[in-house]
Amino acid sequence: MESRGDAMSWQPEYPRRIPERRPAGHRPRAPRWSAEFERPFTAVTSDYYAVQVRDASDPAVDVFLDIAAASVDAGVGDAPDASEILTHRTADAVDVIFLGYWTDPTRHARWARHSALGRWFRDLDAAEVEHGAWRETIQVPLERAETIYSSPDREFGFAACEGIRLGSTTSNGYFGAARDRMPLSAIDPLEAPAPHTRRESVPSAGRRLRAALGLNVAVIRSGQYWEASTGEQLEDYERELEPKLLAGMDYLATNPDDTGTISLRILRSGDPRTVPARRETSVLGHFSSLEQLETWAANHATHAAIYEHAIAKNRQYGEARQVTTWHEVFVLAESTRFEYVNCHPATGVLAYAEELWQPVGHD
C-alpha cells in the first residue's frame, strides 16, 4: 500500500496487472471527486438496521428511532463515525432504517454488541413481535470500495466519516471507471463464482433467518441531493431527472434475471415523521457481480438517459449546480452478514440467498 499525492492523502494501491478500462487519451467531460483518506484504514463498514411495519405511524417506529438516537449520542462508546435515518416504502411494508458507517471494524464490533440498537435487534423474538426487523452488514477492506461525487461541497455516505475528504479524480466519464477506482481491480477481475437463483418461496414469517450471498456480490448506494435546489433547477430535477432515475430503477427491479439485480430499495433520507420530507434520496442495490452492474450502465437506454441528463446539467450550470449526485460501491467478501426477523419474504436478499439458516439462541 502506498500513498498517493501529498503525505496527508492515503489510498490503498496495487501494482496493476489487469489493464484499466480508461480509454487512451480520455479527458472527462465533467469534474468529479472521490473519497481520500487522511490516514490508513483497514476496512469500511456500513451497517443497516431496520424496523419493518405496515405504516410509518406504527408505535414500533417511535421505539426504534428512540433506540437508534440513544445509540449514537456523544457519550456512547464506539458510536458510528457517521449515521443516517432512511425510509423504504413498498405496497407491502415500510422499512424505517438506521444506517451507521465505521472506519474501524473493532469499534463497530463492540458497538454492535453493546449498543442499545444492537441489543434490541438481538433480543427480538421472531415468534412474538408483531412487526419485522432486519440487519444488513456490509464490511469490506478499502481495496474493495470506490466512491464518486458530482460536487465536493458536502460529504455523503461513507465520505461523511472523520478522516475522509473528497479529492478530485479523472477516473470518471467512461464505462468501467468505477472498476478502475477500486484498488483491488488492479490485480483481481472480481468475478462472481456463479449466478444467483431466485427462490420460489421463503417462509420468513415468525422466523429469524440469516442469509449468505457469496463472493464478489456488488453493492451500490447511489444518492441524489436536491434540498438546496430552487426555481428551474428544482423543476428540472423533479420533472426530468427523477423520472429518468425511477425508470432505470424500475427496469432493474423488473428484470432481475437479465440485470443480475438481487435487491433494490429506493430510500428517502430523514425522519419519516417529518413533513415535508427532505429532498434527498438514495438507491441501495445488490447485484450478482460488478460486471452485471457495469453492463446495465454501459448498454441500457435507461442509464444513458440518467447519465446524459446529469452531464448536460452540470455543463449548463457548472459550479452553480444545485443538485448533487454520488455513489459508493462495495464488492463483498463472503463474510458479509444479512439477518431478517419476521420479515416479508420479498425483503432484501431473502429470495436470492445462497444459504438460509435459522440460528438457535443468540450470539
Automatic annotation (TrEMBL):
GO MF term (any one): lyase activity
Top-level lineage group: Bacteria
Swiss-Prot/TrEMBL cofactor(s): heme b
Keyword Coiled coil listed: no
Keywords noted in UniProt: Heme, Iron, Lyase, Metal-binding
Keyword Acetylation: no
Family annotation (Pfam families): Dehydratase_hem
Residue segments, region Disordered: 1-31
Biased composition (Basic and acidic residues): 14-23
Family named by the database record: Belongs to the heme-containing dehydratase family.
Name the record gives this protein: Phenylacetaldoxime dehydratase family protein
Species of provenance: Agromyces archimandritae
Lineage: Bacteria, Bacillati, Actinomycetota, Actinomycetes, Micrococcales
